[in-house]
Protein backbone atom coordinates (compact mmCIF):
# COMPACT_ATOMS: atom_id res chain seq x y z
CA UNK A 1 0.00 0.00 0.00
CA UNK A 2 1.24 3.55 -0.70
CA UNK A 3 2.16 5.66 2.29
CA UNK A 4 -0.24 8.33 3.50
CA UNK A 5 1.89 11.17 2.15
CA UNK A 6 1.95 9.72 -1.37
CA UNK A 7 -1.78 9.10 -1.22
CA UNK A 8 -2.39 12.72 -0.17
CA UNK A 9 -0.22 14.00 -3.04
CA UNK A 10 -2.13 11.90 -5.56
CA UNK A 11 -5.50 12.94 -4.17
CA UNK A 12 -4.66 16.64 -4.38
CA UNK A 13 -3.57 16.24 -8.00
CA UNK A 14 -6.76 14.33 -8.80
CA UNK A 15 -8.81 17.04 -7.09
CA UNK A 16 -7.47 19.59 -9.56
CA UNK A 17 -8.40 17.38 -12.50
CA UNK A 18 -11.86 16.81 -11.00
CA UNK A 19 -12.42 20.54 -10.57
CA UNK A 20 -11.24 21.35 -14.09
CA UNK A 21 -12.51 18.32 -16.00
CA UNK A 22 -14.61 20.23 -18.53
CA UNK A 23 -11.88 22.76 -19.26
CA UNK A 24 -9.34 19.96 -19.62
CA UNK A 25 -11.56 18.14 -22.09
CA UNK A 26 -12.04 21.24 -24.23
CA UNK A 27 -8.36 22.16 -24.03
CA UNK A 28 -7.06 18.75 -25.09
CA UNK A 29 -9.82 17.58 -27.44
CA UNK A 30 -7.84 18.39 -30.58
CA UNK A 31 -4.35 17.43 -29.41
CA UNK A 32 -2.72 15.20 -32.00
CA UNK A 33 -1.00 12.25 -30.31
CA UNK A 34 -1.17 9.99 -33.37
CA UNK A 35 2.64 9.76 -33.34
CA UNK A 36 2.43 8.19 -29.88
CA UNK A 37 -0.43 5.86 -30.77
CA UNK A 38 1.50 4.73 -33.86
CA UNK A 39 4.60 4.11 -31.75
CA UNK A 40 2.70 1.77 -29.44
CA UNK A 41 0.81 -0.13 -32.12
CA UNK A 42 3.72 -0.76 -34.49
CA UNK A 43 5.63 -2.66 -31.81
CA UNK A 44 2.79 -4.97 -30.71
CA UNK A 45 3.27 -8.44 -32.12
CA UNK A 46 0.53 -10.77 -33.27
CA UNK A 47 -2.71 -10.28 -35.12
CA UNK A 48 -5.06 -7.40 -34.32
CA UNK A 49 -7.38 -6.41 -32.82
CA UNK A 50 -5.22 -5.67 -29.80
CA UNK A 51 -6.43 -5.13 -26.25
CA UNK A 52 -5.11 -1.76 -25.10
CA UNK A 53 -5.19 -0.22 -21.62
CA UNK A 54 -5.34 3.59 -21.81
CA UNK A 55 -3.86 4.50 -18.43
CA UNK A 56 -5.06 7.91 -17.30
CA UNK A 57 -7.52 8.04 -20.16
CA UNK A 58 -9.02 11.38 -19.14
CA UNK A 59 -12.15 12.29 -21.09
CA UNK A 60 -11.68 9.44 -23.58
CA UNK A 61 -10.11 11.07 -26.63
CA UNK A 62 -7.55 8.32 -27.19
CA UNK A 63 -10.00 5.53 -26.37
CA UNK A 64 -11.98 6.67 -29.39
CA UNK A 65 -8.82 6.74 -31.51
CA UNK A 66 -7.88 3.16 -30.61
CA UNK A 67 -11.45 1.99 -31.21
CA UNK A 68 -11.55 3.73 -34.58
CA UNK A 69 -8.50 1.70 -35.56
CA UNK A 70 -10.33 -1.51 -34.73
CA UNK A 71 -8.78 -2.33 -31.34
CA UNK A 72 -10.40 -3.11 -27.99
CA UNK A 73 -9.59 -0.21 -25.67
CA UNK A 74 -10.09 -0.15 -21.90
CA UNK A 75 -9.71 3.12 -20.04
CA UNK A 76 -8.57 3.78 -16.49
CA UNK A 77 -8.64 7.02 -14.54
CA UNK A 78 -8.73 8.15 -10.93
CA UNK A 79 -10.88 11.24 -11.51
CA UNK A 80 -14.59 10.41 -11.46
CA UNK A 81 -15.65 13.12 -13.97
CA UNK A 82 -13.19 11.72 -16.51
CA UNK A 83 -14.45 8.17 -15.96
CA UNK A 84 -18.02 9.28 -16.70
CA UNK A 85 -16.97 11.37 -19.71
CA UNK A 86 -14.83 8.59 -21.16
CA UNK A 87 -17.56 5.97 -20.80
CA UNK A 88 -20.12 8.26 -22.40
CA UNK A 89 -17.96 9.54 -25.24
CA UNK A 90 -16.14 6.32 -26.19
CA UNK A 91 -18.54 3.52 -25.26
CA UNK A 92 -15.52 1.64 -23.88
CA UNK A 93 -15.08 -0.06 -20.54
CA UNK A 94 -13.46 2.46 -18.18
CA UNK A 95 -12.06 1.47 -14.79
CA UNK A 96 -12.14 3.91 -11.88
CA UNK A 97 -8.84 3.27 -10.08
CA UNK A 98 -6.18 5.26 -8.28
CA UNK A 99 -2.76 4.58 -9.80
CA UNK A 100 -1.37 3.87 -6.34
CA UNK A 101 -3.89 1.06 -5.84
CA UNK A 102 -4.02 -0.52 -9.29
CA UNK A 103 -5.92 -3.80 -9.46
CA UNK A 104 -5.42 -5.16 -12.97
CA UNK A 105 -5.86 -8.69 -14.30
CA UNK A 106 -2.60 -10.46 -15.02
CA UNK A 107 -1.33 -10.90 -18.59
CA UNK A 108 -4.43 -9.35 -20.15
CA UNK A 109 -3.30 -6.43 -22.32
CA UNK A 110 -1.31 -6.38 -25.53
CA UNK A 111 -0.41 -2.76 -24.91
CA UNK A 112 -0.50 -0.07 -22.23
CA UNK A 113 -0.76 3.56 -23.37
CA UNK A 114 0.48 5.87 -20.59
CA UNK A 115 0.39 9.26 -22.27
CA UNK A 116 1.30 12.24 -20.04
CA UNK A 117 0.38 10.46 -16.84
CA UNK A 118 3.13 8.52 -15.03
CA UNK A 119 5.07 11.67 -14.19
CA UNK A 120 2.32 12.64 -11.71
CA UNK A 121 3.40 9.82 -9.38
CA UNK A 122 5.79 10.54 -6.51
CA UNK A 123 9.11 9.02 -7.53
CA UNK A 124 9.12 6.55 -4.63
CA UNK A 125 5.90 5.00 -5.99
CA UNK A 126 6.90 4.59 -9.64
CA UNK A 127 8.60 1.20 -9.23
CA UNK A 128 5.47 -0.39 -7.79
CA UNK A 129 3.24 1.00 -10.52
CA UNK A 130 5.60 -0.11 -13.29
CA UNK A 131 5.66 -3.61 -11.80
CA UNK A 132 1.87 -3.77 -11.89
CA UNK A 133 1.78 -2.60 -15.51
CA UNK A 134 4.41 -5.20 -16.38
CA UNK A 135 2.27 -7.92 -14.77
CA UNK A 136 -0.86 -6.76 -16.61
CA UNK A 137 0.80 -7.09 -20.02
CA UNK A 138 0.83 -10.33 -21.94
CA UNK A 139 4.23 -11.85 -22.62
CA UNK A 140 5.88 -9.62 -25.20
CA UNK A 141 3.33 -6.86 -24.59
CA UNK A 142 4.26 -3.22 -25.12
CA UNK A 143 4.21 -0.18 -22.83
CA UNK A 144 4.22 3.35 -24.23
CA UNK A 145 4.92 6.30 -21.95
CA UNK A 146 5.25 10.02 -22.48
CA UNK A 147 6.40 12.38 -19.73
CA UNK A 148 7.56 15.98 -19.59
CA UNK A 149 11.33 15.76 -19.42
CA UNK A 150 13.60 17.49 -16.94
CA UNK A 151 16.55 16.92 -14.62
CA UNK A 152 14.82 14.62 -12.12
CA UNK A 153 13.33 17.49 -10.16
CA UNK A 154 10.17 16.66 -8.21
CA UNK A 155 7.44 18.68 -6.57
CA UNK A 156 4.36 20.79 -7.13
CA UNK A 157 3.56 22.66 -10.33
CA UNK A 158 0.59 24.65 -9.18
CA UNK A 159 -1.99 22.22 -7.75
CA UNK A 160 -0.53 19.18 -9.55
CA UNK A 161 2.45 17.08 -8.50
CA UNK A 162 5.10 15.93 -10.92
CA UNK A 163 8.49 14.29 -11.38
CA UNK A 164 10.44 15.47 -14.42
CA UNK A 165 12.78 12.62 -15.35
CA UNK A 166 15.77 12.76 -17.65
CA UNK A 167 16.28 9.93 -20.13
CA UNK A 168 19.00 7.97 -18.24
CA UNK A 169 16.93 7.88 -15.05
CA UNK A 170 13.72 6.92 -16.82
CA UNK A 171 15.53 4.25 -18.79
CA UNK A 172 17.01 2.72 -15.63
CA UNK A 173 13.56 2.64 -13.97
CA UNK A 174 11.99 0.77 -16.88
CA UNK A 175 14.86 -1.68 -17.25
CA UNK A 176 14.76 -2.47 -13.54
CA UNK A 177 11.01 -3.17 -13.85
CA UNK A 178 11.70 -5.87 -16.43
CA UNK A 179 11.15 -3.98 -19.68
CA UNK A 180 13.27 -4.01 -22.83
CA UNK A 181 13.85 -0.68 -24.58
CA UNK A 182 12.40 -0.44 -28.09
CA UNK A 183 12.69 3.26 -28.92
CA UNK A 184 12.49 6.76 -27.51
CA UNK A 185 11.98 10.19 -29.05
CA UNK A 186 11.12 13.77 -28.13
CA UNK A 187 7.99 15.75 -28.93
CA UNK A 188 6.69 17.77 -30.68
CA UNK A 189 8.37 16.32 -33.76
CA UNK A 190 10.43 18.52 -36.06
CA UNK A 191 11.48 21.14 -33.50
CA UNK A 192 14.86 21.89 -31.91
CA UNK A 193 15.46 19.83 -28.75
CA UNK A 194 15.03 22.82 -26.45
CA UNK A 195 11.50 23.17 -27.87
CA UNK A 196 10.64 19.50 -27.29
CA UNK A 197 9.47 19.23 -23.68
CA UNK A 198 8.08 15.68 -23.96
CA UNK A 199 10.06 12.45 -23.72
CA UNK A 200 8.28 9.47 -25.28
CA UNK A 201 9.49 5.89 -24.96
CA UNK A 202 8.34 2.41 -25.93
CA UNK A 203 9.11 -0.83 -24.07
CA UNK A 204 8.50 -4.55 -24.35
CA UNK A 205 7.74 -6.88 -21.47
CA UNK A 206 10.75 -9.16 -21.23
From TrEMBL:
One of its GO terms (molecular function) is methyltransferase activity. GO terms for biological process: methylation. It comes from Stutzerimonas stutzeri. Pfam families: Methyltransf_25. It comes from the Bacteria. Keywords: Methyltransferase, Transferase. Residues 52-141 form the Methyltransferase domain. The lineage of its organism: Bacteria, Pseudomonadati, Pseudomonadota, Gammaproteobacteria, Pseudomonadales. Coiled coil: none annotated. This is SAM-dependent methyltransferase. The keyword Ribonucleoprotein does not apply.
Amino acid sequence: MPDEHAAAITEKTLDDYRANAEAFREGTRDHDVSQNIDALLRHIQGEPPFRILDLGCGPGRDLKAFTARGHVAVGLDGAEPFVHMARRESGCEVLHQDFLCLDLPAETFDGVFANAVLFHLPSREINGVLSKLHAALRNGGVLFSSNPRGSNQEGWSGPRYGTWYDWPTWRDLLLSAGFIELEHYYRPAGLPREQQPWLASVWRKA
